[in-house]
UniProtKB/TrEMBL annotation:
CDD domains: Hr-like. Residues 626-752 form the Hemerythrin-like domain. It comes from Neoroseomonas soli. GO terms for cellular component: plasma membrane. Keywords: ATP-binding, Cell membrane, Membrane, Metal-binding, Nucleotide-binding, Translocase, Transmembrane, Transmembrane helix. It holds the Pfam family E1-E2_ATPase. This is P-type Zn(2+) transporter.
Length: 763
């Protein structure tokens, strides 16, 4: 407000002096112009003293000398214009910073201050500071969730756009974890607080934004260093012009156009603009210093679990005794797993439920922490757990299993099932890649990151496949927190390095890196505190986006400085040669200041390297096709099961007929809808020459193989033809399974940008 008052005073004095001159009172005009300019000189002088006391050479010295010199030399109008330039530059800086920090300001403004606590039958209004863990809270429509907690109602719908940058509301079910800061976009709901307001997610975000707002960027300090040299150059040029010509007005004109506002203002405005734009995308950067370091990153290290992978195990493969069968093995294991809270047990239950398997209720369930679970299901004694758990009961779990099971077990953890003391099934669990991870790595390389490395405490057998899939430069496995710090320091010695992680064990490595990037949406508070950048949305592709924003902001800052000071330098030389009067020079410098600050504000817009395709319209059916992919992956498993079931007799004919019908009723209509509505819309937004051609070609091959299955089925069911046709039918089913899995993966990756624009949730 003080900056705007000063600007108003100068502007009023400048106009009053001009009016006095026009109304025939030229004697009064210089006094009015001086009265307008001298308060600005006093304001600048105080700022200069504070800078000197703070150990920095104040670059506003040029402006102070220009105002005072103009008044002394009788150029009061020029002094008033210089005052307008300084006051206007500060007001423009205040406006620009407000524009750039709008996202951070919005976060602060939306901080909840009151909450409704349910006490028996009564509802009382309390300050959010009075919330305690265990309190039952009522969140009404439009209110902000005041503290972290769990949903105590059937459902809730929250707008978390200020936390994550994602525009779509998110639906939650009973027992779901709620983060403070989300806005209730549906009916009122009850929640049970798990933290006080000061310990909640939103309070932590506010602390981070406050740190970001006050941190001083290295680029701003670099501007101060340049300004020292610039002041010296200005003094030499102004003094030289005066000495050579004997005209003090030449020196004054040089001082007027030398006011280094572009150098002072452009860098902070551009960097704060970058911080604000990152905040709108769910990326909190702790200050301009972190943003500038992020712009120079050339090596990125990733943790594995919870970073490149979702951190939740899923069922990757099943191998079972043929007499039991895969589906029956999953049914028994899923039934027993219902009595356990272990993540692997939860994954087995999810897998069985997704396949439509009805799970009976287990009896006499007992769980050994870290080992496994035992119980009775339909009269059968079951054991489900790790290999050592079964060994302790005298059961060798790997006896009788195929080589495929042994190979699969090497790459992922395995839950073994024993039925009545006999090893009967192996469930291979994997923590698959995040869908956006491959695209993230490719985008990092496109941004100039030379090394992308995996650093994990997991086994080499689990880490190596990720390294191959993502084409990483190196994989470090079996890493303790101390080992991770050593790797970070070794990489940082060669190039600026960022570390990305989410767990407590990652916090030391995050702190050791040039830039620590914490997955804050689902990660730990320790990681968020140690990181320089916190991702509030659970998407690893925000890492590449953060680097792209940082690089654009730094580039714009340097360009604004170079352009502004370059134009000032030219104007100084022209003034030294007598081409500009002090008044004309003041007007020219005002235009240069406005240009430099407005150019710095262009950091609010994405650069060319940040452009992503527009989201697809609902008519394209992207969400519907993605939801169908889950069923198609089950169809791929059915193809494999049917192929493995084929033997010399037609015993698998019924199973094959069911699979062939699913090909006709599920797969082929799905592909037809994609080519009718989804692919044309995606192609228009992706651009280029027929970008969807590879997927359409794969559709054609899948259809040809589906037709071949139908033909072979017809041949096989003829009298005496089964044995001759069975080998070719088996090969065709396996080929169709492999092609279908590859196609689904390629399609999801090609369309991932469209999917990411519509939802932050991992499909």
């Amino acid at each position: 407000m003080r900056r705007y008052l000063l600007l108003s005073w100068v502007l009023a004095g400048l106009v009053a002096g001009g009016a006095a001159h026009l109304l025939g009172r030229p004697d009064l005009a210089p006094w009015l112009w001086s009265a307008a300019a001298l308060p600005v000189a006093a304001h600048v002088g105080l700022g200069l003293v504070r800078s000197l006391l703070g150990g920095r050479v104040g670059v506003d010295a040029v402006a102070l000398f220009a105002i005072l010199g103009a008044v002394v030399l009788g150029e009061e109008a020029a002094a008033a214009v210089i005052g307008l330039m300084v006051a206007g530059g500060e007001a423009l800086e205040a406006w620009a910073e407000g524009r750039a920090t709008r996202a951070l300001t919005d976060l602060m403004a939306r901080a909840p201050r009151r909450a409704a606590r349910i006490d028996g039958e009564a509802i009382e209004e309390i300050d959010v500071a009075a919330i305690r863990p265990g309190d039952l809270l009522l969140v009404r429509p439009g209110e902000t969730v005041p503290a972290d907690g769990t949903l105590d109602d059937i459902s809730a719908t929250l707008d978390e756009s200020m936390l994550t940058g994602e525009p779509l509301p998110v639906d939650f079910r009973a027992g779901a974890v709620l983060r403070s800061g989300g806005v209730n976009a549906g009916p009122a709901f009850r929640m049970r607080a798990t933290h006080g307001s000061e310990d909640s997610t939103y309070a932590a975000i506010l602390r981070l934004t406050q740190e970001a707002a006050v941190a001083r960027a290295p680029l701003a300090r670099l501007a101060d260093q340049w300004a020292v040299g610039f002041v010296a150059f200005t003094a030499v040029l102004a003094g030289g012009a005066w000495a050579v010509t004997g005209d003090p007005l030449r020196a004054l004109a040089v001082l007027v156009v030398a006011t280094p506002c572009p150098l002072i203002l452009a860098a902070p405005v551009a960097l704060v603009a970058g911080i604000g734009r990152a905040a709108r995308r769910g990326i909190v950067v702790k200050g301009g210093g972190a943003l500038e370091r992020l712009a120079r990153i050339r090596t990125v290290l990733f943790d594995k679990t919870g970073t490149l992978t979702p951190g939740h195990p899923r069922l990757a493969a099943v191998d079972a005794d043929p007499a039991l069968g895969r589906e029956e093995a999953l049914r028994l294991a899923g039934a027993l797993a219902q009595g356990s809270t272990h993540p692997v047990s939860a994954a087995l239950v999810r897998a069985a439920t997704a396949r439509g398997v009805a799970l009976p209720v287990p009896e006499t369930v007992a769980e050994v922490p870290g080992g496994g679970v035992t119980g009775m299901v339909e009269g059968k004694t079951l054991m489900l757990g790790a290999e050592g758990f079964l060994h302790a009961a005298g059961i060798d779990p790997q006896s009788g299993f195929s080589i495929a099971a042994q190979v699969s077990a090497a790459a992922g953890s395995v839950a073994w099932l024993a039925v009545d003391g006999v090893p009967s099934a192996a469930f291979v669990m994997a923590d698959g890649l995040r869908q956006e991870a491959p695209r993230t790595v490719r985008r990092l390389r496109a941004l100039g990151v030379r090394r992308v490395v995996l650093v994990t405490g997991d086994r080499a057998a689990a880490a190596a496949p990720l390294g191959r899939a993502l084409r990483l430069n190196e994989v470090f496995s079996h890493q303790t927190p101390a080992d991770k710090i050593a790797v970070v320091r070794a990489e940082a010695a060669a190039a600026p390095t960022a570390m990305v992680g989410d767990g407590v064990n990652d916090a030391p490595a995050l702190a050791a890196a040039d830039v620590g990037i914490a997955m804050g949406a689902a990660g730990t508070a320790a990681a968020a505190e140690a990181g320089d950048v916190v991702l509030l949305v659970d998407r690893v592709d925000r890492v590449a986006e953060a680097i792209a924003i940082a690089r654009r902001s730094r580039r714009v800052a340097l360009q604004a400085i170079a352009l502004g000071m370059g134009m000032s330098g030219v104007a100084m030389i022209v003034a030294a040669l007598g081409g500009l009067t002090p008044l004309a020079g003041a007007l020219v410098q005002e235009a240069i200041d406005v240009f430099a600050i407005l150019y710095a504000l262009s950091a609010l817009r994405p650069g060319a390297e940040e452009q992503v395709p527009d989201s697809l319209p609902a008519e394209a059916g992207l969400d519907e096709r993605y939801h169908e992919h889950a069923g198609l992956r089950q169809l791929a498993e059915a193809l494999r099961d049917a192929g493995e079931a084929i033997d010399a007799t037609p015993s698998a004919a019924a199973e094959l007929a069911a699979v062939e019908e699913r090909l006709r009723t599920e797969l082929l209509p799905h592909q037809h809808e994609e080519e009718r509505a989804l692919y044309p819309e995606a192609a228009r937004r992706l651009g280029g020459q027929d970008p969807m051609a590879p997927l359409i070609r794969m559709h054609a091959e899948i259809e040809a193989l589906a037709d071949r299955v139908a033909v072979l089925m017809g041949l096989a069911t003829k009298d005496g033809s089964w044995e001759a046709t069975a080998p070719e039918l088996r090969r065709t089913l396996f080929a169709l399974e492999a092609l279908l899995r590859l196609h689904l993966t390629m399609e999801e990756e090609m369309l991932a940008d469209f999917r990411g624009a519509q939802s932050a949730a991992h499909p």
